[in-house]
Amino acid sequence: MTGSAVQLSVPTRFLKAWIQDHYLDRLSELWREESGTTRVDLVVRTAVARTVPLKAANAPREIVSERPVVAPTAAAPARSQPVAAPTAPASAQPADVAAGSPLDARLTFETFVVGKSNTLAHAAARQVAEAVPGAAPLFNPLYMHAAVGLGKTHLLQAVAWAGAARGRRVVYLTAERFMYGFVAALKSHAAIAFKDALRSIDTLVIDDLQFLTGKNMQQEFCHTLNALMDAGRQVVVAADRPPSELDALDDRVRSRLAGGLVVELAPLEEDLRAQILKTRSVSLSEQHRGFAVPSAVLEFLARHVGTSGRDLDGALNKLLAVNKLTGEPVTLEMAETAVKDLVRPCDPKRVRVDDILRVVAKHYNVTRADLLSQRRTANVVKPRQIAMYLAKTLTLRSLPEIGRRFGGRDHTTVLHAVRKIDGLIATDRALADEIETLKRLVAE
Ligand SMILES: Nc1ncnc2c1ncn2[C@@H]1O[C@H](COP(=O)(O)OP(=O)(O)OP(=O)(O)O)[C@@H](O)[C@H]1O
């Protein structure tokens, strides 16, 4: 703090811009109230965040990582840390680089949702994290791979948190950070200290291994891997492809990586996406008064937005932003417009309004013509509303389009039907089950 100004540092330019755009006024106000400071300056840190060097043998058991802490608010932008180029400022100490900065507090086993596509990876990660300290590792290295946004980093950080909670010394590094540390060590003639720092830990967690390049780097990584594994320490690695496809890697490194347990995280299936969305939206609602995402919207997102966790985060963040900035409550209509650009271009099975009319008519023993007619008897009105609801949630058709397909009705009639059924599903378990059955029948 200097005179009337306070300087706050953040690890990335992205974070600086985000805070500047969204929180600077609030921050300035709080500082003014607390200390009379009139100006808040944001700067980007150039060196590593930690100041306590990692002391090999007698350091307190702790967890260290190079990713920034993200306050547990899902309103924050999607986590994607711009990676540091593997060139280090001369002032960076190798031991500091090996230590890195804290982990993302949200990425734990408690917040990881398990489904068909990630059961094995989750079980293996848990097993590794919860092994008795000192016991010989069961799967070593544990190698997890998946396409982007399917939960690799989340699982790796969960391993790191859980391992540290059990008293293990865990280091979490991306491959880039590993390279950065090595270059820093070479520059400051402290390569031995760097190696010692890394080799004295219990669990080494390396993320984004596909970015490990350069012969020297690979050699160094291979030595570290061998040293740790030969000493019975656990190594956990994640990459965007299996070891056999890491073309840039030396054969020896590849075979060492493939020699433990290799598990894949598949694209998140719809049920899992729905579950993740539900969990996230609950925590968003807790953090932002007045923000609520109806279940029909969550279903719509689970069905139509992409198959990665990042797509889901993006969709919810978009709804939150629109809700906060315009005050518009989250409805199917609002969501449809807000996430238009995030909707998958081609759905594996395109549901047609005709399929819905056929299935609903058969199920309720009415005719297709009844559903499209102007008749208002109860035995026709409810199936018609259910059919409209299904048309809205299972297809990408707009309300006016659906109105036209249902005997030329107005879009407000469709909206009324969608809201009505949505409300009933929340309180009527039997109806909710019935609609699930209809959805399955329509999808067949
Ligand atoms: N099973 C899950 N349960 C809860 N959240 C999940 C799950 N899978 C993914 N996510 C969330 O999706 C987002 C992206 O996940 P993550 O960063 O772990 O992906 P990744 O596989 O490491 O991707 P990349 O290769 O791009 O680094 C995160 O917010 C993460 O918490």
Q: Provide the CATH top-level class of the largest domain.
A: Alpha Beta
Strand order of the largest sheet: 3-5-6-7-4-8
List the ions, cofactors and other small molecules found in this model: adenosine-5'-triphosphate
Number of strands: 8
Proportion of helical residues: 40-55%
Instruction: Name the helix and strand elements from N-terminus to C-terminus, one letter apiece.
Output: EHHEEHHEHEHHEHEHEHHHHHHHHHH
Strand share of the residues?
A: 5-15%
Outline type: globular
Quick one: biggest sheet?
Answer: 6 strands, parallel
* CATH homologous superfamily classification of the largest domain: P-loop containing nucleotide triphosphate hydrolases
- What is the total number of structural domains? 4
Question: Structural class, please?
Answer: alpha/beta
The total of helices stands at 19
Unreliable runs, pLDDT <50, ≥5 residues?
46-63, 66-97
- End-to-end separation: 65 Å
Please supply descriptive tags for the structure shown above.
444 residues; alpha/beta; Rossmann fold; Helicase, Ruva Protein, domain 3; 4 domains; six-stranded parallel β-sheet; two-stranded parallel ribbon; 19 helices; 8 strands; 51% helix; globular; binds adenosine-5'-triphosphate; DNA replication; DNA-binding
Question: Summary?
Answer:
The protein is α/β, with parallel strands linked by helices. The protein has helices spanning 13-22, 24-35, 94-99, 119-130, 152-165, 175-187, 191-199, 215-230, 251-258, 270-287, 295-304, 309-326, 332-338, 353-363, 368-372, 378-394, 399-405, 411-427, 429-443, and strands at 5-10, 39-44, 63-65, 142-145, 170-174, 203-207, 234-239, 261-264.
